[in-house]
Amino acid sequence: MLNYRFRDFVSVLTLSFVALTHSLEAQEYGLSEGLKSRAVVTGLCNPSSVTFSPDGRLTVCDSGNGRVLVVKDGKAETLVDGFETEYWKVDAETGTKRFLLGPLSSVWVNDSTIAIANSGAKDGAETVMFFDGAGKAADGKPTNAVSPTSDDAADKGEGNLCGFSLSEDGKTIYVAGQGADAKSWVLAVDVESKKLTPVFSADEQGIEINSPMATMPWGSDSVLALYSGAGGKEDGLIVQWDVRSKKAVRQWTLPGLADPMGMARVPNSDSIVVVDNHWALTEVLPKGKLAHVALPKAGGPAKVEVLANELLGPVSCAFGPNGDLYIAQLGEAFDGDKGEVIAVSGIKP
Fold this sequence. Notes:
CATH class: Mainly Beta
Pfam families: NHL
Organism: Roseiconus lacunae
InterPro entries: NHL_repeat, WD40/YVTN_repeat-like_dom_sf
Distance between the termini: 41 Å
Helix content: under 10%
Number of helices: 0
Protein name: SMP-30/Gluconolactonase/LRE-like region domain-containing protein
CATH superfamily: TolB, C-terminal domain
Keywords: Repeat
Largest sheet: 6 strands, mixed
Mean pLDDT: 90
Structural class: mainly beta
């Protein structure tokens, strides 16, 4: 663990790209009337997560480059780099490798400590790593990994850890697990002991939709989990889990959304926004969506209002201190330097 605080940074590398908040002409991305977008960071490789530190710094997982960045005062700087990376898909016929992935998610535990997914490791070897300052991935303090939880031969243990969120009391980090579909898990990290444990199983509750992508505390005693389901199929689902009983309390379908991957609570409201990747294996389709989603108390179909329908592979979103929504998207192409973070202003509860 590093022994210095963020105020003592003296050698953080400033990247060659900068935040472009005011200098680039905004693309409209099929935004609804009253909404505006602007570019914040460009030149990323498969960005996978956006979040904010308690003091308001935008934090981005530049996954394909094996690093986590912070953006402050118009500059993107390396916070932690040197993470392992791996290709998520390899074409069995051609051998073409696709979707280079490293750290897929991060969340700030307090003003100086950040937890980052070591998602470039193999399934069953991935951990959540804690850092008290800038540096290298090897400097982090890891949790345990999670071994196979089923008898399925394809189950190698939990992998592609993503979708981090911090409980209201700051004691637990919730994690979306992407191990074998034989048993889908939302996991939890005890911040004090740094123990990673499977907690909510969709399969044990008879929920057939898998691929949890994001988590979100929903009050002090429950958690929302967003499931993307099968690629290209409108079977996405939000499940409310009770943290004590570990049972599913409510479920909401997401009509009109094919591959939901990220969600964020609209400030000062009980509604959320969801980004829909509209995923494809060989290219980024300019059909990604941003939707405002209201969740009926009884469950069932959510009320979905599409706010944008031409995003470029959105994967994660978070509201910033200024009330704008920050979206990480793959950009015009994956596995290169086309990834970006954009900000959308004008979203109302």
